[in-house]
Amino acid sequence: MRAGFIEKPMKAYFINDAPEPQLERDTDVKIQVRATGICGSEVHAYHGKHPWRVPPVVSGHEFSGVVVETGSAVTTCRPGDRVTAEPQYGCGHCYLCQSGRYNLCPEKKILGASGWSGSFGEYVVLPQQCIVPLPDAVSFAEGALIEPLAVGMHAVRAHHIQETTKVAVIGCGTIGLGVVLSAACFHPATLFGIDVIDFNLEKARSMGAVAAFNSTRDDVVKEIMERTDGKGVDITFLAFGNDACVRQAAEITRPGGTISEIAIMGKDIKASFDLIQVKELHVDGSNMYVRSDYEAVLAEIAAGNMKPSGFITKRFPITQFGEALEFTDKRPEPVVKTLLEF
Fold this sequence. Notes:
By secondary structure, the protein is α/β, with parallel strands linked by helices. The chain is about 25% helix and about 25% strand.
């Protein structure tokens, strides 16, 4: 099959003869990929720095496509159906899976890693519980965005944002913008975007942020305090992680407020325990999503409340995989999401 292949660190290219995955269980579903996004995790794999996306690998996990084959026990879809899918599943037996939190399962399998051929290949095979129908009103390109959007929706839904809630998002790349779009669906009292790239801040404004601040120029703490009567925001979503961002989150969050940490951070990042303790801040993590988050995103798109097309800033045919991965890595121009099309 056609595929984008990462042979080894810093060597990636298109191939015509990748092994085509086959159904192995009667509950498996085979999908022909139509569109797939490049995630930061795959850029890390390209650099040889991802813990489980290890070259040589056909990676990829943000995608949409058409069902082409199903196992004999599959009842939820059939060939010809337009679908996207959760690129993960748990063991099904542990207490986390049994409680519906399979996203935290220690034995969780992730598409495009550890021998599971991913969506940079023309075909993928997933168990039927991963399959999510794609409404006719949602394009294949939009369908490939459901996965990163669900990351933001998962974090937002955990905190029950209301019309009185004041929200800030630090880091307005793909995940942070997904948080902005998701939070905007719940009509918070105010919604701030914070980044160091003006392009990302413009995207945040277009997606629902009432104000956006550049940390390299603006006094972010002063700006937010002035706009919240000196109290700070109720919840800060951390979608980028370094010492400065963690500190900023603690500074702009009101006493008794919440910091929701979504970014993948290094082990040496410093937590601002002085402010966490004095302000009695709540700090929690958010890890991927579950099916209801996918369904929530699709419902908001179908209702016209969430318009994700602005995420796609560059498209490449799969035959230009090497160029697409290098472009996403080097960023010669501003990028939110690079899309590969078959």
